[in-house]
Amino acid sequence: MSKPPEDGGERRRLVRPPTGGDPAGRGFGARMKTADKRSLSSQQWLTRQLNDPFVKAAHAKGYRSRAAFKFSEIDERNHLIRRGARVIDLGCAPGGWLQIAVERGAGVVVGVDLLAVDPIPGAEIVQADFTAPGVADQLIGLAGGPPDLVLSDMAPNTSGHRQTDHIRIVGLIEAAAAFALEALPPGGAFLTKAFQGGETADVIRVLKAGFAEVKHVKPKASRVDSSEVYLLALGRKRG
User: Fold this and answer.
1) Percent of the chain with pLDDT over 70
2) Could you tell me which residues are beta bridge partners of residue 166?
3) 27 inside domain
4) Residue 199 included in any domain
5) 214 strand-pairing partners
6) DSSP character for 216?
7) Would residue 4 count as lying in a domain?
C-alpha cells in the first residue's frame, strides 16, 4: 500500500488516543464536570449536544454516535452499500458507521482504529494503525477479498496550531485515499471526511483519475456551522 510522506520523511500515523474525554471524539459517554467548573465553550458544547436532535435520535436507536446518521443519509442518496458487499471502515471508533453497514445488509464489515472499539455483532474490528506494515493485507484478508466500499471518518486530535492540524487532516485523507485506490476493485466506492477550504486539490485530482465520479457531499447531520464535508468517489476505474 502506498503511503503519503510524513513531515521530515517519517511515515504518517493515525490519530493517537487522547488522554481524556470521549476516546473517539464522535461518541457518547464523556464524563461531564459540574457546570461551575466548565469553561464557557464547554458549556456551549454541552448545551448544543443536549439540544441536538441527531444526538437524541442516536441514543434512541442505539447508535454509537450521531455520525451514524451522516453515513446513513449519504448511503440513502448514493446507494453505497449493496447487500452482501465487503466494507472496510478506516478509523472506525466508536462504531456508528459499522452499525449502519451491518444494518444495511453488507456481507462483511471490517473496521480498524488505534482505539479499542467495543464489539459490534456482524463486524470484525482490529485495533491497529492501518498504515502500519501488514495491516492493509490483514484488513483485506478479514474482508475475504478486496472491499467494495472503503470508508473513513477519521479526524486528528487537534494541537491548537492551525497549520499543524491542517497538515494532519490532509495526511489522513491522503492515507485513506491511497488505501482505497490500491484496495478497491473496478466499480468500488470510497467515502472520506474532508473540510471546506482544506487543501485537498491534489487528492481530488488523484481520485478523479481513478474514479468515474468524485463529488463533495454534506449530510444534514453534519452541523451547518461546521466546515466538515465528505469526499465521495464512485466507480473505481480499471487499472
Assistant:
1) 72
2) none
3) yes
4) yes
5) 233
6) E
7) no
For residue 176, which phi and psi values (nearest 5 degrees)? -65, -40
Q: What is the DSSP string of 76-130?
A: HHH----TT-EEEEET-TT-HHHHHHHHTT-SEEEEEESS-----TTEEEEES-T
In CATH, what number is assigned to the domain containing residue 28?
3.40.50.150
Among 27-31, 61-65, 166-170, which range has the highest average pLDDT? 166-170
pTM for the model stands at 0.77
Count Cβ atoms within 10 A of the Cβ of residue 207 and give its class: 0-12 exposed, 13-18 middle, 19 or more buried: buried
Count CB atoms within 10 A of the CB of residue 53.
11
Cα distances (Å, whole numbers) of residue 205 to 128, 209, 211, 214, 231: 29, 6, 10, 9, 12
Averaged pLDDT for residues 115-133: 96
Name the residues annotated as catalytic.
Answer: 193
What is the residue range of 214's domain?
15-236
pLDDT class for 200, splitting at 50, 70, 90? confident
Highest mean pLDDT among 6-20, 47-61, 93-107: 93-107
In a domain, 10, yes or no: no
135-152 pLDDT tens trace: 999 999 999 999 999 999
- Spatial contact of 96 and 65, defined as CB atoms under 8 Å apart: yes
Q: In the chain, how many domains are there?
A: 1
By three-state DSSP, how is residue 56 classified?
helix
* 108 close to 87: Cβ distance less than 8 angstroms: yes
